[in-house]
Amino acid sequence: MAKENETRENETTEQPSAEKTKTDRSIPYPRFKEVVSERNNLRSDVAEREAKIEQLEKNLKNSTEKIDNLNEFKQELDDWKKQRYEKNVDYWDQKKKVFDVEEGDPNFEKVEKIKHRFKFGEELEPSEVAQNIEILKTYEEIDFFQNEKTPTEFNSKKASGKPAKEGDYGGYDSIEELARHDWKAAGEYLKEHRKE
Hints:
With 196 residues, this protein is mainly alpha-helical. The protein contains seven helices and no strands.
Protein backbone atom coordinates (compact mmCIF):
# COMPACT_ATOMS: atom_id res chain seq x y z
CA MET A 1 0.00 0.00 0.00
CA ALA A 2 2.82 2.39 0.85
CA LYS A 3 4.51 1.51 -2.40
CA GLU A 4 1.28 2.21 -4.32
CA ASN A 5 0.93 5.66 -2.70
CA GLU A 6 4.53 6.41 -3.54
CA THR A 7 3.92 5.41 -7.16
CA ARG A 8 0.89 7.70 -7.34
CA GLU A 9 2.85 10.58 -5.90
CA ASN A 10 5.55 10.01 -8.48
CA GLU A 11 2.96 10.08 -11.27
CA THR A 12 1.59 13.43 -10.15
CA THR A 13 4.96 15.11 -9.80
CA GLU A 14 7.26 15.80 -12.67
CA GLN A 15 10.08 13.40 -13.11
CA PRO A 16 13.37 15.06 -12.29
CA SER A 17 15.17 13.11 -14.97
CA ALA A 18 12.91 14.52 -17.67
CA GLU A 19 13.72 18.09 -16.63
CA LYS A 20 17.41 17.52 -16.29
CA THR A 21 17.81 15.91 -19.65
CA LYS A 22 17.47 18.46 -22.40
CA THR A 23 17.22 16.22 -25.41
CA ASP A 24 14.72 16.43 -28.24
CA ARG A 25 13.23 13.10 -27.24
CA SER A 26 12.29 13.93 -23.71
CA ILE A 27 8.61 14.65 -22.95
CA PRO A 28 7.57 16.25 -19.69
CA TYR A 29 5.55 13.86 -17.57
CA PRO A 30 2.47 16.13 -17.20
CA ARG A 31 2.31 16.44 -20.97
CA PHE A 32 2.72 12.67 -21.29
CA LYS A 33 -0.19 12.13 -18.87
CA GLU A 34 -2.30 14.65 -20.78
CA VAL A 35 -1.66 12.91 -24.09
CA VAL A 36 -2.43 9.48 -22.58
CA SER A 37 -5.63 10.87 -21.07
CA GLU A 38 -6.68 12.40 -24.42
CA ARG A 39 -5.92 9.14 -26.16
CA ASN A 40 -8.00 7.17 -23.65
CA ASN A 41 -10.86 9.67 -24.02
CA LEU A 42 -10.70 9.36 -27.80
CA ARG A 43 -10.74 5.58 -27.53
CA SER A 44 -13.86 5.69 -25.34
CA ASP A 45 -15.48 8.20 -27.78
CA VAL A 46 -14.69 5.89 -30.69
CA ALA A 47 -16.14 2.91 -28.81
CA GLU A 48 -19.33 4.91 -28.03
CA ARG A 49 -19.69 6.03 -31.62
CA GLU A 50 -19.12 2.53 -32.93
CA ALA A 51 -21.91 1.31 -30.63
CA LYS A 52 -24.17 4.11 -31.89
CA ILE A 53 -23.32 3.25 -35.49
CA GLU A 54 -24.15 -0.39 -34.85
CA GLN A 55 -27.49 0.61 -33.28
CA LEU A 56 -28.25 2.96 -36.19
CA GLU A 57 -27.47 0.19 -38.68
CA LYS A 58 -29.93 -2.10 -36.85
CA ASN A 59 -32.55 0.68 -36.88
CA LEU A 60 -31.91 1.29 -40.57
CA LYS A 61 -32.37 -2.39 -41.35
CA ASN A 62 -35.64 -2.50 -39.36
CA SER A 63 -36.85 0.72 -40.97
CA THR A 64 -36.00 -0.56 -44.44
CA GLU A 65 -38.05 -3.71 -43.80
CA LYS A 66 -40.97 -1.63 -42.53
CA ILE A 67 -40.74 0.69 -45.52
CA ASP A 68 -40.79 -2.28 -47.87
CA ASN A 69 -43.92 -3.61 -46.11
CA LEU A 70 -45.56 -0.19 -46.25
CA ASN A 71 -44.70 0.14 -49.94
CA GLU A 72 -46.67 -3.05 -50.58
CA PHE A 73 -49.69 -1.56 -48.79
CA LYS A 74 -49.20 1.72 -50.64
CA GLN A 75 -49.22 -0.11 -53.96
CA GLU A 76 -52.41 -1.94 -53.00
CA LEU A 77 -54.00 1.35 -51.91
CA ASP A 78 -52.95 3.06 -55.15
CA ASP A 79 -54.45 0.18 -57.17
CA TRP A 80 -57.67 0.39 -55.17
CA LYS A 81 -57.85 4.19 -55.66
CA LYS A 82 -57.29 3.76 -59.39
CA GLN A 83 -60.03 1.14 -59.66
CA ARG A 84 -62.38 3.30 -57.58
CA TYR A 85 -61.64 6.34 -59.75
CA GLU A 86 -62.26 4.39 -62.97
CA LYS A 87 -65.52 3.02 -61.57
CA ASN A 88 -66.61 6.52 -60.50
CA VAL A 89 -65.70 7.98 -63.90
CA ASP A 90 -67.75 5.31 -65.68
CA TYR A 91 -70.70 5.94 -63.36
CA TRP A 92 -70.40 9.73 -63.80
CA ASP A 93 -70.19 9.39 -67.60
CA GLN A 94 -73.50 7.51 -67.55
CA LYS A 95 -75.22 9.86 -65.09
CA LYS A 96 -74.03 13.18 -66.54
CA LYS A 97 -76.28 12.59 -69.56
CA VAL A 98 -79.09 14.01 -67.46
CA PHE A 99 -77.47 17.42 -68.01
CA ASP A 100 -77.58 17.08 -71.82
CA VAL A 101 -80.97 18.72 -72.23
CA GLU A 102 -82.00 21.28 -74.75
CA GLU A 103 -84.29 24.22 -74.30
CA GLY A 104 -87.89 23.07 -74.39
CA ASP A 105 -87.16 19.86 -72.50
CA PRO A 106 -89.26 19.63 -69.29
CA ASN A 107 -86.07 19.28 -67.20
CA PHE A 108 -84.21 22.17 -68.87
CA GLU A 109 -85.01 24.75 -66.20
CA LYS A 110 -84.30 22.31 -63.37
CA VAL A 111 -80.93 21.38 -64.86
CA GLU A 112 -79.96 25.01 -65.42
CA LYS A 113 -80.72 25.82 -61.77
CA ILE A 114 -78.35 23.17 -60.38
CA LYS A 115 -75.72 22.81 -63.12
CA HIS A 116 -73.32 25.22 -61.37
CA ARG A 117 -72.93 22.75 -58.48
CA PHE A 118 -71.19 20.18 -60.69
CA LYS A 119 -67.74 20.06 -62.29
CA PHE A 120 -67.55 19.16 -65.97
CA GLY A 121 -64.62 18.39 -68.24
CA GLU A 122 -62.56 15.60 -69.71
CA GLU A 123 -59.96 15.22 -66.95
CA LEU A 124 -61.57 15.63 -63.54
CA GLU A 125 -59.74 14.97 -60.29
CA PRO A 126 -60.90 11.90 -58.33
CA SER A 127 -62.28 14.15 -55.59
CA GLU A 128 -64.28 16.18 -58.14
CA VAL A 129 -65.82 13.05 -59.67
CA ALA A 130 -66.72 11.70 -56.22
CA GLN A 131 -68.24 15.06 -55.24
CA ASN A 132 -70.31 15.16 -58.45
CA ILE A 133 -71.64 11.66 -57.75
CA GLU A 134 -72.58 12.48 -54.16
CA ILE A 135 -74.43 15.66 -55.16
CA LEU A 136 -76.21 13.83 -57.98
CA LYS A 137 -77.30 11.04 -55.61
CA THR A 138 -78.89 13.64 -53.35
CA TYR A 139 -80.94 14.99 -56.24
CA GLU A 140 -81.88 11.49 -57.38
CA GLU A 141 -83.09 10.59 -53.87
CA ILE A 142 -85.64 13.39 -53.99
CA ASP A 143 -86.63 12.53 -57.59
CA PHE A 144 -85.54 15.97 -58.74
CA PHE A 145 -85.20 14.95 -62.39
CA GLN A 146 -88.58 13.20 -62.61
CA ASN A 147 -91.18 14.92 -64.75
CA GLU A 148 -94.01 16.38 -62.74
CA LYS A 149 -97.22 14.47 -62.94
CA THR A 150 -100.39 16.43 -63.50
CA PRO A 151 -102.54 16.32 -60.39
CA THR A 152 -105.97 14.81 -60.59
CA GLU A 153 -108.89 17.19 -60.55
CA PHE A 154 -109.94 17.95 -57.04
CA ASN A 155 -113.59 18.54 -58.00
CA SER A 156 -114.23 15.05 -59.31
CA LYS A 157 -114.36 13.19 -55.98
CA LYS A 158 -114.37 13.86 -52.30
CA ALA A 159 -111.48 12.79 -50.14
CA SER A 160 -113.54 9.80 -49.04
CA GLY A 161 -113.97 8.69 -52.66
CA LYS A 162 -117.66 9.63 -53.03
CA PRO A 163 -118.68 11.70 -56.06
CA ALA A 164 -118.82 15.42 -55.57
CA LYS A 165 -122.10 17.21 -55.22
CA GLU A 166 -122.92 20.64 -56.53
CA GLY A 167 -122.21 23.32 -53.92
CA ASP A 168 -120.36 20.88 -51.71
CA TYR A 169 -117.07 22.87 -51.52
CA GLY A 170 -115.56 21.17 -54.54
CA GLY A 171 -116.10 17.71 -53.13
CA TYR A 172 -114.87 18.48 -49.58
CA ASP A 173 -116.89 18.86 -46.39
CA SER A 174 -115.72 22.39 -45.61
CA ILE A 175 -114.02 25.33 -47.27
CA GLU A 176 -111.08 24.89 -44.86
CA GLU A 177 -110.52 21.32 -46.02
CA LEU A 178 -110.69 22.44 -49.65
CA ALA A 179 -108.18 25.21 -48.90
CA ARG A 180 -105.77 22.71 -47.31
CA HIS A 181 -105.82 20.54 -50.41
CA ASP A 182 -106.07 23.21 -53.11
CA TRP A 183 -105.94 26.84 -52.07
CA LYS A 184 -106.47 28.06 -55.64
CA ALA A 185 -109.66 26.05 -56.03
CA ALA A 186 -110.82 27.35 -52.63
CA GLY A 187 -110.27 30.93 -53.80
CA GLU A 188 -112.19 30.32 -57.01
CA TYR A 189 -115.04 28.63 -55.11
CA LEU A 190 -115.34 31.63 -52.81
CA LYS A 191 -115.43 34.01 -55.81
CA GLU A 192 -118.13 31.95 -57.52
CA HIS A 193 -120.30 31.60 -54.44
CA ARG A 194 -119.89 35.07 -53.03
CA LYS A 195 -123.15 36.50 -51.81
CA GLU A 196 -124.03 39.71 -53.49
